[in-house]
Amino acid sequence: MELAGRGRRGRSSGTKPAAGDRARAVGRGRVRLAVGVVAVVCLSLGGRAVQLSVAGEGDAGLFTTEHRRVAAFEDRAERGAILSADGRQLATSLEASKIVATPYQVEDPRAAAEALAGVLDEEVAGVEEKLTRRDEGGALSGYSVVASGVEPEKSREILDLALPGVSVAPDAERVYPNGALASQTLGHLGADMAYGGVEASHEEALKSGDDVELTLDTAVQKELEGTLIETVKEHEAKSAVGIVMRVDDGAVVGMANVPGYDNNEFGEASGEAQRNRALTDPYEPGSTFKAFTMAAAIEEGAVTESSAFVIPDHMAVADRIINDSEPHETLTLDTGDILARSSNVGTVQVAQALGGEKLAEYIDRFGFGKATGVDLWGEDVGIVPPYEEWSGSSIGNIPIGQGLTVTPMQLAAGYAAIANGGLAVTPYVAEGSEPEDAGRRVISENTSSIVRGMLQGVVDGEEGTGELARIPGYSVAGKTGTAEKVDPETGLYGGGFFTSFVGFAPAQDPEYLTLVLVDDPQTTYWGEVVAAPAFQKVMSFTLSYMNVPPDRKDAAGPATNQYAAGGSR
């Protein structure tokens, strides 16, 4: 398959603004912002100079301190915008002001409070309290912020009041025009610092006035968030996470956490809602991990496409009993059937043929147990037991995605390597953050092709578990996952379920992958029922929106893969 030179496709209708046009538009905006800020600075400093000439030379030190604050406000006003891949502003700074008081210079606090409250639409008592703020020694303070984020019109009204001890300092209000869209990915700029996301990880560029353009597309992001919201509601789930990624280079086209929060109301959001769980919350991946076990065994020659295994519905491994998801008669299945049916027993037999030490090596090669390198802060690396610490039963649970934890981002990156011909990717959300060189090789192109075919059988196969992920006109490859959660209080299974689906399309020449993870659905815990339909909706939209050509003529997507055969699930 072709691995290089494939960029982001355009929409079927409408065009993305040219880079030059966007630059000129942003430039004109910056000129208007700069003129406004300069005007407010001049008015503020002029008024302040009059106050200081009256107060006397003893206040010269105060002027120096306030001048430094003004300079800081100017820097904040020049903070760069965060732009989506389709040129929309996701975060920007608007012209605003701060109303600043020097309490020991305020002549009539009550009268001044009444005048200010009338302009600011605030309570008189609250304003008066700020005008009479005292320092630790009990003396009237030399600096108190009365209000921030004040619009230019109101700032001019306050300047016209000419209140002794009250001045206007330039400021900038950070706003998020799309509210809750991609809120955890963007992060938030607070009064004191940047909190998480792009605002924090790309702080240096933004505070230098540079715009940061993301790989996120607003249309795909909206579709992803909307689908996750519907899925959580329909299945009465606790939460959901989704990722849409370009498989060739790891560019993140969409990343969502539901429930989210409005970034303009950051202080009202819970800590859990603010967290980007795609990076911060590792979980046991369950059956979605079986593709890596199969890829490792094929790469090492421990099994082939046609290797057959006798599969009972349960087997003993050390002191544990490994069961398939449902009771069945003893079957003879090849490796593709094992993956299509998501057989725990069959996957463990494949892992035994490979050996635990080799499996541990490939788990490391696929990037589990370490950071993906995504250009966002707060990434958890998960927990992967080193081979030296495996117990006798580890070969019975780790191959099927138990006994280790991964993040959604790690899992998506691992599937990208399977999809793109076997090369590791470093996920990224900001243009220019991608590595210059191609990723290291994880598996061969031949193994990648074989496993892609097996994963296509999961969706197309008559007995595959991913039937609800089919997309008319496209071949789809992917894997379902249902993983029991560990109760944090007891350390035992029984804390609910994670259900998931991760897949890519077109199956044999993939461009995009989508991961959907749903936390503790109440209607059913099967990944094929909860997560696969959400995947289908998001991936179908993405392929159409990005103008990815259909790769088959059939409308219903019947089984065409050699791994379609099989018996009862």
Question: Explain this structure to me?
Answer:
This protein has 569 residues and is α+β, with helices and mostly antiparallel strands. It contains 19 helices and 16 strands. It has helices at 19-55, 60-77, 109-120, 124-131, 152-161, 183-186, 197-201, 203-207, 218-234, 271-274, 277-280, 290-299, 335-341, 344-354, 356-365, 394-397, 408-419, 445-460, 527-545, and strands spanning 82-83, 89-101, 144-150, 166-175, 188-189, 194-195, 212-213, 239-246, 252-258, 308-311, 314-317, 320-323, 331-334, 477-486, 493-505, 512-519. Strands 1, 2, 3, 4 and 7 form a 5-stranded mixed beta sheet that branches. The protein has a 5-stranded antiparallel beta sheet with strand order 9-8-16-15-14, with helices on both faces. Strand 1 (82-83) and strand 2 form a beta hairpin. Helix 1 (19-55) packs parallel to helix 5, helix 3 packs across helix 4 and helix 9 (218-234) runs antiparallel to helix 19 (527-545). It starts with 18 loop residues before the first helix and ends in a 24-residue tail after the last helix. Mean pLDDT is 85; it is low at 1-77 and 556-569.
Structure summary:
With 569 residues, this protein is of the alpha+beta class. The protein is built from 19 helices and 16 strands. α1 (19-55) packs parallel to α5 (152-161) and α13 crosses α18.
Helix content, binned percent: 25-40%
- Structural class, judged by helices and strands? alpha+beta
Major β-sheet profile: 5 strands, mixed
- Measured by DSSP, the beta-strand proportion falls in 15-25%
Number of strands: 16
What integer value in Å does the Rg equal? 29 Å
Low-confidence stretches: 1-77, 556-569
Whole-number mean pLDDT = 85
Q: Span between N and C termini? A: 32 Å
Q: What is the global morphology?
A: elongated
- Can you count the helices? 19
